[in-house]
């Protein structure tokens, strides 16, 4: 079997809900990310791309009908380039990269593009079809932006509580204080703002609709300001709008290939997909699921936490991220060193690709060999990927 390598990564800046990207369709966002990615490899024959795998969590509006294929066509790729769209909710973008890596390892293709997209602003209201024609009753439109909708009545009620309530339960189980959550959120904003100011994200993003930076980053955020926010889910709760990730719009794109494809792609690969892990738990404890997923990925890579030099963990909620970092026992200073979703935003289908692209660059920047990307997923799942830095600079710090 061939190894799978990451050659290039890009994303759009992430926009706020109702913000700068509100007027951009999700299929256009996906096409913009894909175009920006392929601009990095001008010598690659687009017809050599064997498949495209795209993550998308909603798929109820303009992103319906296989948004991955729409992105390929809108980006001007040859009509011979196939595409599929996958949905593992918040893990969709990382799942797309995992599926792409398996495609390469199995020999089904030598070059694959992967990515993800979400416009949480443009996610539509949906109506269930009536059980009979012309019902003489009101019908409620349900927002498809986030969370449960049109729930199966056979599903146990305790499994379908709000994501925020799930994380209040997580907070109770692991005794993670409001103060720790707010401090972690403030750190995310501080590090994200610094990363942008230092130019870290310049070659990882492609401007869209005039947006050149992630729109939700607040450089002046402090734990004291966050402490003044009211709880969002319980009157006496700990989770607020400040220590939970914002609703966001955005897209990401990744170029993956085998080692043998390097001469056709152009630049050398930057990282190897060394291990993958998936795990599932009680839906209420979804935020803690990355703990086991990452450990499985590490075992498959043949390494342990002591070998890991960088971690990119999606920050759906501060309490969720802290519970994972505590369980892993890693140095918190190697986690999300360039900010996380609490500041950057969390457009569901796009976050996994952001994690991988950022992790690969952080590994090069820090001259570390091994890194972990992980994401929790609503309804009780998680995914993780281990990257190996394959640059010449590894270990020369």
Describe, in short, the structure shown.
Helix content is 30%, strand content 18%.
| Average pLDDT metric | 96
Kindly provide the radius of gyration, computed on alpha-carbon positions and rounded to a whole number of angstroms.
20 Å
Shape: globular
Kindly provide the name of the CATH class of one domain: Alpha Beta
CATH H-level superfamily title of one domain: Thiolase/Chalcone synthase
How does the helix and strand content classify structurally? Answer: alpha+beta
Low-confidence blocks of residues = none
Task: Describe the protein in words.
It is a single chain. Strands 1, 2, 3, 4, 5, 8, 9, 10, 11 and 12 form a ten-stranded mixed beta sheet that branches. The chain has a domain at 5-122 and 245-387: Peroxisomal Thiolase, Chain A, domain 1 (3-Layer(aba) Sandwich). α3 (92-106) packs across α11. With 397 residues, it is an alpha+beta fold. The protein starts with a strand and ends in an 8-residue tail after the last strand. The mean pLDDT is 96. The protein has eleven helices and twelve strands.
């Amino acid at each position: 079997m061939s190894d799978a390598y990451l050659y290039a990564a890009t994303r759009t800046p992430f926009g706020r809900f109702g913000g700068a990207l509100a007027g951009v369709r999700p299929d256009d966002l996906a096409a913009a990310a894909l175009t920006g990615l392929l601009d990095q490899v001008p010598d690659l024959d687009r017809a050599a791309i064997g498949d495209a795998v795209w993550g998308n969590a909603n798929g109820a509006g303009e992103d319906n009908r296989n948004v991955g294929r729409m992105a390929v066509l809108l980006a001007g790729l040859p009509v011979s380039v196939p595409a599929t769209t996958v949905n593992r909710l918040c893990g969709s973008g990382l799942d797309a990269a995992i599926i792409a890596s398996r495609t390469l390892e199995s020999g089904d293709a030598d070059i694959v593009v992967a990515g993800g997209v979400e416009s949480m602003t443009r996610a539509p209201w949906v109506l269930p079809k009536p059980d009979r024609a012309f019902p003489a009753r009101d019908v409620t439109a349900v927002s498809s932006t986030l969370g449960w909708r049109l729930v199966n009545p056979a599903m146990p009620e305790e499994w379908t509580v709000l994501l925020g309530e799930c994380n209040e339960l997580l907070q109770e189980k692991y005794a993670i204080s409001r103060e720790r959550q707010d401090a972690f959120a403030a750190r995310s904003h501080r590090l994200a703002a610094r990363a942008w100011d230092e130019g870290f994200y310049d070659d990882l993003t492609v401007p869209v609709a005039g947006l050149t930076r992630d729109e939700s980053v607040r450089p002046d955020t402090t734990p004291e300001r966050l402490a003044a926010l009211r709880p969002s889910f319980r009157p006496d709760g700990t989770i607020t709008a400040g220590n939970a990730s914002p609703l966001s719009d955005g897209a990401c794109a990744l170029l993956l290939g085998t080692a043998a494809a390097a001469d056709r792609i152009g630049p050398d690969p930057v990282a190897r997909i060394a291990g993958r892990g998936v795990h599932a738990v009680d839906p209420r404890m979804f935020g803690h699921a990355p703990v086991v997923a990452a450990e499985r990925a590490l075992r498959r890579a043949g390494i342990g936490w002591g070998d890991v030099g960088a971690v990119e963990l999606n920050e759906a909620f501060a309490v969720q991220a802290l519970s994972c970092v505590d369980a892993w026992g890693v140095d918190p200073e190697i986690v999300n060193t360039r900010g996380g979703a609490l500041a950057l935003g969390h457009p569901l289908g796009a976050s996994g690709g952001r994690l991988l692209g950022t992790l690969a660059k952080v590994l090069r920047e820090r001259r570390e060999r091994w890194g972990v990307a992980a994401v929790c997923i609503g309804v009780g799942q998680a995914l993780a990927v281990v990257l190996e830095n394959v640059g010449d600079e590894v270990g020369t710090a």
